[in-house]
Batch of 2 targets.
Target 1
Amino acid sequence: MATVERGPAIYAGSRIPQPVPTILKADPALEDVLTVNFGPNHPSTHGVLRLIVDLQGEHVVGLSAVIGYLHTGFEKTMEQKTWWKGVTYPARIDYVSFQYNELVYVLAVEKLLQLEVPRKATWTRMALGELARIHSHLVYLGTAALELGAISMFWYCFRERDLVLDLFELVAGTRMHTRYFQVGGLAEDIPVGFYDETRAFCRRMPEALDEYEGILDSNAIWLERTKGVGLLSAADAIALGQTGPNLRASGVDWDLRRREPYLAYDEVEFDVPVRHGGDVFDRYKVRVDEMRESTKIVSQCIDRLEEMQGEPWTSDDRKVVLPPREELHTSMESLIHHFKIVTEGFRVPAGEVYVGVESARGESGCYLVSDGGPRPWRAKFRAPSFAALHATATCSADVAVADLIAVVGSLDAVMGDVDR
Amino acid sequence: MAYESVPGLVETREAFGETTLVIDPARLAEACLHLRDAEGFNLLIDITATDYLGWADVDVAGYYATAAGRDLNEPAAQGYARVPEPKPKRFSLSYHLLRVDEDSARVRVQVWLDDGEAAETVVPVWPTADWHEREAWDMMGIPFAGHPNLTRILMEDDWEGHPLRKDYPVGGEPVRFSEAE
């Protein structure tokens, strides 16, 4: 079997370690190397990431990541559940930008079903998706700053995060893992008061973001510890499968919302923040700018949604969507449909599809195989955090051990997403 | 889109607006290198292994769907019985490729493998394949020839079996302290 040489076209000058791209090997000639175990239970590892670090003095000379501590077997479980029940699982995979995994799963099932979704559902999905992005970036910003000693950032970010969760509670009844999106549209209509509350949030958010930047951008410690640390070049980022903010901070203008517009992203105005430093600071900046853009998108969604008062929020295809509750008392067909969908589930035509959306941490994808039955034959989630951790070894070459925390934090991996 | 010049191309399928290139496993790495350098697919999104053991057997899953997808105007079409097309081999490996460029594009490269049959590694083509291939090995037991570090990634190092295989039961892990002991 012929082995392929690494072609020079993309990887010339690459910092990616050889021969294993995800393991930084300490030079055996180095003396006084101390091997240290980080995690898996350590507050700075964002869950249960374990790093085996070779140190010479304070310098990281070798690194390998060990994952799998949060492996939950979601994909195996989903094969046992009907398409309808499966909606609850994806949100728990990436539990910080939960709404996107739910979205990508229902979009994939709808692609297999070739099901049209009413526009109100599409715009609501966009609004809630962007709120989930803000939520996720706030968690990133709060924890990443906390790990570098800026504890007040944590309180400020979690103050706004709570407002986002209040909005989710208002619309879906739960603060996280809403199961509000479902195949065909939404689980329920948008409640009274959601638009006003969301508008109030959108007015508040830009001020809060200015406040965050006011705290961090003139903070000498923050700048020292983030600028020029954890470098990742554009070519290396692409080679290591990076997407989302990590890729855009390395100077690649790539956003699925712009390049492959799904939902109605071609009808809203927003900018894609791109920075060229590829360091921890630029990853922070990209995420803060993204929150600004997300706030704009949410406002535009609310504008459009207010014009859609009284429109249907879910498809009227009764073979897939549960009938309205009140019909169960009067209609035999509705009762049968309800019973069939809940007990046996709806059937999805045979085929395989892949759908990718731009989640808070990059391309969140869902690959589904159906055999025509009521359960997925295979459900696979493309986890952006899994890809983000590929870059740990490359970013950590030549950093000090304290900066390792900044680097891992800036890649913003959620361990639930990594291990699935 | 023409992919005729891809080495080892067996079949091109178009479905749901997605292009799937079925590749001869012996020429997988060559085909991937061609797709990267000649077609510009510079980002490997994902590698998915799928086990088709029991596909199209009786009593495995429901076989109710219409031939050409559901017809929303014909509600009764839901009940048409249809057995899915048989698959060439037990396992499929799907490589989802993305072209990060002005003219973005996606393609799925697929190879079919029997149990124990090795696939060529594509780590030299896309370094990100490292963990994706380790996951496919860990979860499905597909060996990758030439992989620099093919070890388990999500399960423990001493785990037995490959959990996402169809013949691996749910709840199939050994119980350490059972009543029988």
Note: The first strand of chain A starts at residue 23 and ends at 24.
Target 2
Amino acid sequence: MAAVGACPALLACLALLACLPIMACRGPAAVPLSMLENDPRLSNRVPDAADRTAAQLAAAALTSDEEGTARALRRLEAIDSALELWEGQSTGLTPVSADLINATRGDPRAYRTATHRLLERDDLDPALRTRLEEAERDDPLYLADARMRDVRVWQMGRAFNAVAEPVGRSILTSSVAPYRLAAALIQYAAELYTAEALTLQERQALDHWKRFVAEHPDSFEARKLEPRMERSQSRLNELQRDRAVHSAERALREGRVRLALIYADRALDYAPEDPKASEIRERAARVLDREREKNDTSLMAAQIATPAGEAEASYELALALLLPDRDVESVASALLLADRQGPLADEARFALALARAEQGDEDDSWKRFETIADHGVANSNMARYAQTLVSSPAQNPYQAFRSSLSRDRWYNARWVMLGRWYRGVPDRGIPRPIEWLIGAPAVARDIMSSPVRLIQLPWKAPTTGRNARVYARRYLSRYPHGAHEYEVRDWLESYEARHDNWFGVLAVAEGREGLSDERRVELRAKAAQQAVDMASHEPRRDVRNTMLRHVAREFPDTVAGVAAGHAARVEVEEASEQRIRISRGFLLENPEVAGPRGLALGPGLLDEDLSNGELHPLGVAFLGERTLEINLVDQGSDEDDPPKAVKRRISPERLARLVSQLEETSIRNALLDADDVQEPDAQRDVYFEKVRLGLSASVDPRAASESHYVYRGLRERYGVVRRREPILPFDLVIRGSISDLSIGAFPRIRKPRETPDAFLYK
Amino acid sequence: MSAALASGVHRAASGVYRAGWMLSLPLAVSCASTPDVDPRYRPVENVLEVIGVLRRHIPDDTYRFEPAHDFTGRNVYRSSLLRLESLERVHDGALRAGYMDGVIAFAKGRSLERLRAFDLAAGSYRLAAERDEALRIEALRSADVCDSLQEAAGVGVDLDDLAGDRAPRPATDPDAILRAYDERELLLSEVAQAVEDTHYTAVVFEEMERADMSRASYFTALRKILPEGDVRAIAELRRVVRRHPESKLANRHMLQLGNLYADIAGEYVDAYPPESLQFDVARFRDLTAAASQLYETVASQDGTPEKLEASRRLEAFLAFSLRVDRDRFTP
């Protein structure tokens, strides 16, 4: 009876339990009852004969037991043959073992030769094949040959392009073909003439040869390479000498004599007794000696005695200039009135200009200095000082500011007229007239398109106004309430506003007397928002938090300031040791990571069915220690909305397995697909290492140990269609020009791509 | 010199040159002519010429802005001093009559105090006070200020004590050194109050900055000996940066702090090779981030020479970080 009586209650409970998922599925998306499957129990693997042999082989290889390795390999080959015969599938251990044995050979060349033979096998795992191919290519001679091949391809390509482009562009306008061809060939000839003695790729090749010879000094190849290396080294010295001479010439032309001397000396280091470098050095030394002589002369005193009648006036003016309470203006005016052409008249004028400056009449003072400067150094001993003052951007920042604006306007006008030639022809070491002659056709073409540039001027002007900004700031810093304060402040405010630098605008505006409250409030709000935006781009949580707290402290009266304070508090509350994320796309593309040997994610979370709960595109994040954050599509929302984040702790074993699976998968993916690289991230690696060693319990709270690495799927990175590296070495170019109303199509050989280490040779 | 007199002198000189030219014509075929003296670099003509220029730059705030340079590119206070000394030498006889002695001594004092030769400046001022009654009060006041500055400069370890060519002072008691620096600061604060609203304000601020720099340099020099030396040195350099944001040397202070971080990063890599198990990724990252950030900040300051230095140093520092494997440091 009791059993019978219990039945309705049991049924009711069961019915309620059955209803729970239905109730949970009412909205478009539901939080599933179990996001992670129970910790999967994986049975211990019992090593078989192949495993034991592999272990013996590894042990033999580590102890350099050649006989043992050979014996173990033979046994593995026998096991694989038997398995293939009986089960149609081998262990796959034989090629790996062969590679291990190859690795025990001391000589890298022997290893590469053995690897080459190993690659001829057809039973290699694709990932192993990629790794072996990489190892085979890591050969100095192979790399040097590849770089020399690049040189030849580009030498040929440049010649080909020089002809193909003008011909291709003259399909519809064949009458101008000879002209275009001639112009292109002249350009090509100029390029050849100005080309450096050794290209970057040749320098790389030379370096690879040097490495090979250092590693194998007695080899046959090393003996063969020696004359080539000597030739290249001599061309490298020539290149260095050319560069140094070119820099020395330019420095001398620009009046930077000391720099010219340094470069000339450098050129002489590469080519001792080089006539050109010696000549530049001598010239520079002569100029420097002359300069020193002149400077020393200027420090001497002339044997000109002050006339007796002027002595008292001179003394009075000296006192007025030296003592703080004297009236310089009246003493100088009296001296000037006494004799406007007298021997001390210039000194009196200079003193008057000083007095005007100290009285705050900035414009009048500078006008007086300019007048003295205009007398010329031959006519006035004070002119040189006045000229220095007037032309010094530090002393006369307003003048520098105006000049900079004028220069910018002039460059903009030239750019509209001449296009890319607005600063003249490039300096390639060819005489300037010839350079202009070569560039003349292109200049003419660019002049034709000046109306287009006139339209583009507002957003494509070649000048940035940065120099004017420096001088404007300098002026306001030196004369915060100077005569041109408002003009300069207006310009600087508008400049900073154009560049969305509201901090800058606020700093300039706050120096202004009578700044309205509305304007101050507006600028503070914008500056605070700018600071919050900047903070949001900061990856380090400690720096970000400091920035946010600073905004909250400095701008408490703004919306952004309040938000910054809130964000800083939330960040502290929700701070985690790590934030390494695996996106949903990655999990979909790599089911082994999502599956029972990895994350063991509930299968319903990846079935694109919102009714049984779905993983958000943000996926799953490692928060450090043993905590995972699982981002789910929230109830009543879709995947474009913010996720519902649920935290789960998992066992250390499961975490270690997940991390290992994730890394194995990523590394394998990278070997199989060059686009699927796993970017380096030191912090991620340290955390994963800790997890694998079972040390995940020790939390590292330092912000510098936090990683933000994201494992993303290929589709998320590249979209549905990936851009592939073209197989053909050339592009087909279709080009039209409005300026000369031409259209054409031509093949263009691509320049070989530089290797990642190319920057070390520049 | 006035335009009329100058043109007269110039005309006379041209006449002499013309005559000389006619006479030497036969020789010109085989000899090179003497180069003309550039009038821009002609010798100084009178005391007023120097004092006029000096007066222009006496009120300069040399704490915030670079000292001015004259047309030869020299520091204007130094070139003024050299010209005054030349005038003294050339017009020794005339000046002995005495009418300009005090003026020249006073002007030399003004130049010397800007070159940190406070003791010499005080001597010059006293001479000026002795020679010229009109200058007496101001000269003695300035002499007192210079004496105080000299006294303050002698307290504690100064930058020149830490320079390579000087024997290092025994300074292993940081507390005593700190007390000395506090005393120096106190002395300078008193001088600052006394000279408020005069051109000495900039000089005193420069001295205060130098005291802070000396203090930071002291701890930087001893960072490998003192306990927690690196942390202390960083804190001291940060203090200099924080206390002198308006200084003309503000960028240089930041560069020095960046250099210290870079040095410590280099030492860290030497001590704990990146491939070793002791290498702490987070610690190294902290050091590199601090150095790079400081270099970047300075490199973004348009119109300053430190911009070039900082950008090159940043480049060099990033090149150094190439030594560290990517799995141990990711820039």
Note: Confidence is low (pLDDT under 50) at residues 1-28 of chain A.
